[in-house]
């Protein structure tokens, strides 16, 4: 069965769309906009109980302020407050496009500049009868850091580069295929005109 180029591109587009749909996280809470100057530290709670299937939960927030505003985020998490069997749990800070900025340790600090972010909690590997309770907190502090080297800037995930390379390869293959067909098509049309 010969698959035409149009069908090939259509199938590729559908496949890539299905992959991107599976990576969406459920928005559990939106903490709103946190702006400088902060009079005092702000603390938000993160908690879910009796989760029994694989999950990806987002807690969205925006940081805004002066162009040189830097925020210190301090994390305190209990990965499995009541035991989670074989469940693998991870925490991370993501940018507005869903790109991972940094994994988060259970008791760590991260520096961010103004922008739209989300704290994502992922859990996988649930067996029969397993459930998980997770809880923790994130504290926002406006701070001045002497060096900007401590600031984490958003960077694309490896999957973004993979999709970019795959797209370039597909475009090059299509171009090569069209170039290889060009001389054959022009000689065939010349023969038809002579006949």
Keywords summarizing the entry:
single chain, 195 residues, alpha+beta, Jelly Rolls, 2 domains, 5-stranded mixed beta sheet, 4-stranded antiparallel beta sheet, 2 helices, 28% helix, 39% strand, flat
What does this structure look like?
The protein is of the alpha+beta class and 195 residues long. It folds into 2 domains: 25-155, Jelly Rolls; 156-195. Helix content is 28%, strand content 39%. It has 2 helices and 9 strands; from the N terminus they run αβββββββββα. It has helices spanning 5-21, 158-194, and strands at residues 26-35, 42-51, 55-64, 70-78, 88-95, 100-103, 109-112, 115-124, 132-143. The protein has a 5-stranded mixed β-sheet with strand order 1-3-8-5-6, with no helix packed on it. The protein has a 4-stranded antiparallel β-sheet with strand order 2-9-4-7, with no helix packed on it. The radius of gyration is 25 Å and the shape is flat. The mean pLDDT is 74.
